[in-house]
Amino acid sequence: MKLTHFIGGEAVSADAPNASINPSNTDEVVAHFPDGGAAEVDQAVQAARKAFPGWASASPEVRSDLLDKVGATVMARAKELGELLAREEGKTLAEATGEVMRAARIFKYFAGEALRRHGQTLESTRPGLDVSTYREAVGVYGLITPWNFPIAIPAWKSAPALAFGNTVVLKPANPTPAIAHALATIIHESGAPAGVFNMVLGTGGVGSAIVDHPDIDGVSFTGSQGVGAKVGMGAIARQARVQLEMGGKNPLVILDDADLDRAVAIALDGAFFQTGQRCTASSRIIVQDGIHDRFVAALAERAASLKVGNALDPSTQLGPASSESQFEQNLRYVQIATEEGGRLVTGGEALSLATPGYFMSPAVIADTDPRMRINNEEVFGPVASTIRVKSYGEALDIANQGEFGLSAGIVTTSLKHARDFRRNVRAGMVMVNLPTAGVDYHVPFGGTRKSSYGAREQGFAAIEFYTQTKTVYVGD
């Protein structure tokens, strides 16, 4: 499969020297894609700028109809799109199909939001004046998206941008261009006017060109802290809007009073499903003394029983790492954790299966200290560390350590502790008796500290980033 850019309503062909590889079978090339750069970005931005006035002033029903059609089409093609996503990214087929359906519902949700424009009518302090506020589109948005949710995250950035009258230039992640290309194709087939939605494929130069382009009015980025900091500085330097989502090192607190089976199931889901490649994954598990040993033993037993295999095999429970670099990083962090004193209870090994791929056994590392690298740096793989604590207060203190603050969870039967945790944990999202990973598409998403910067994503909060307020005074 040879992929193209989408610029100004056209599929733009170019040499395709880059390849996306099936991580379940590294002998298979999923797609070849071009290596775009500043020239292609400039063409896409100019097309988006030209399309903006017409799209912003169109009836909201026009935008709503487009997004609804995109959502319906994605939903109708969920099986084929799910298979493509599983082949390219490595999620299990069930997880990949679930992500496709999430993307479809995001478009349908924002089809409704396109009709629900927010504003206020206010009393003036001066007689004879009327005051109103209106939300209006901002302009051209550059969207830089990651590989771990390669259709859902482009959807949750593109859908609100388009719903509120903006135009888009999307730069998808290099490991997963084919599923992004499939989404771009559907948007164009659904009737997006020329220039309203553009996509440029390529390496890091594309992202830099988007951030630096003077006609990009806002940048939304999801990725690592290091790259996010550069994106933020570049956008702010020219006073563009910027929104950054930069991962997490999410704590899951297990208290003595928790039901053991439930606690293990929650930790297993949060730490290992989707191969741990979720920014909301439960990567630090903080366990109170009274339940610690039983919990660690049960979690290790359940983790060891997970079937690791080809993402397209319906019986697979844990797919491969998405790429060779991610695979090597996962294994390296297991080694670092054990060298610093952690006890490898199970897993953490490269696996040789029927096809060559980036397979590893899920790792549980016990007896770790909160100061260890494994508890402060995002691994982004099927690796969970546990920390023993004596009390709830100690657990909360450790949960609040570090630079990240995306998601945090607690498993307890104590309403007192659940309420206190909800109020005092430093995280943008809090889960009580649930995995730290797994969020709804119609509510705000984002964290605190160095996990997030700028306005929240998704749901009713999206209007804050993708519109600006105009205040209008009317006299007699």
From TrEMBL:
Transmembrane segments: none
UniProt superkingdom: Bacteria
Protein name per the record: Aldehyde dehydrogenase family protein
PROSITE patterns per the UniProt record, alphabetical: ALDEHYDE_DEHYDR_CYS, ALDEHYDE_DEHYDR_GLU
Matches recorded under InterPro entries: Ald_DH/histidinol_DH (IPR016161), Ald_DH_C (IPR016163), Ald_DH_CS_CYS (IPR016160), Ald_DH_CS_GLU (IPR029510), Ald_DH_N (IPR016162), Aldehyde_DH_dom (IPR015590)
Active-site residues (renumbered): 245
Family: Belongs to the aldehyde dehydrogenase family.
Species per Swiss-Prot/TrEMBL record: Sphingomonas cavernae
Gene Ontology molecular function: oxidoreductase activity, acting on the aldehyde or oxo group of donors, NAD or NADP as acceptor
